[in-house]
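Subject: Metal-dependent membrane protease structure
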Amino acid sequence: MLSSRYLGTKALQIGKWIGFLIVYLSASVTLEVAGEYTKNEFLARHVLGVALIITAAALSLISWRYGKQLASNNPRRFGKSKLTGQKVVQFILIFVLMVAFQMLWSYLIAKHLLVTPENQKAVEADQIQLPVWNAIFSVVLAPIFEELIFRGIFMNYFFNKDNRLNNLLAVIVSGLIFGYAHEPQFSINWLMYSGLGCFLAYTYMHFRDIRYSIGLHFLNNFVSMI
């Protein structure tokens, strides 16, 4: 009885989590559609307006759900924490390590040991069509969406017990799923994206404050674009 109830709860949570991911992707796709009409300024402006409304609604929904989760069940006491000098130093160290990881990845691509990921090609193509709005989405909005979904909601649904094994699994599984969402095939690039996801997941777990992983994600995307 308890087993079937547990499986039913997890199945419902999986469905909800996928639903939030679809909501995020819908906002992203709508912005891509707007980019397809750049030659028609009138139509592009209206489609972009719809995309911005959908994005705002999607972000509000996902943020609201994350807040409700923490209010109802938050054994790790995730939330807003006081900024200290020690936390700043730790954050900078994680960021430096993440940049070094990115530089290694770029080096492997430059030396043709790895191919450029399809996700990166798509991002670069979008930048050509709507450079300002896609830059805002990639650098500012995408980190918020993805941290709420892949770290906040995901860990609270599936890894919400505060012990060493559970926390380690949360970081690894969150990273792997994040990698697959950006590179949907099992390859070296998938592992590299997963590595970035693990950096972000560790940051969220370490600071117990999603603003730190959002900030790290923001900086990573910003550095990648310049």
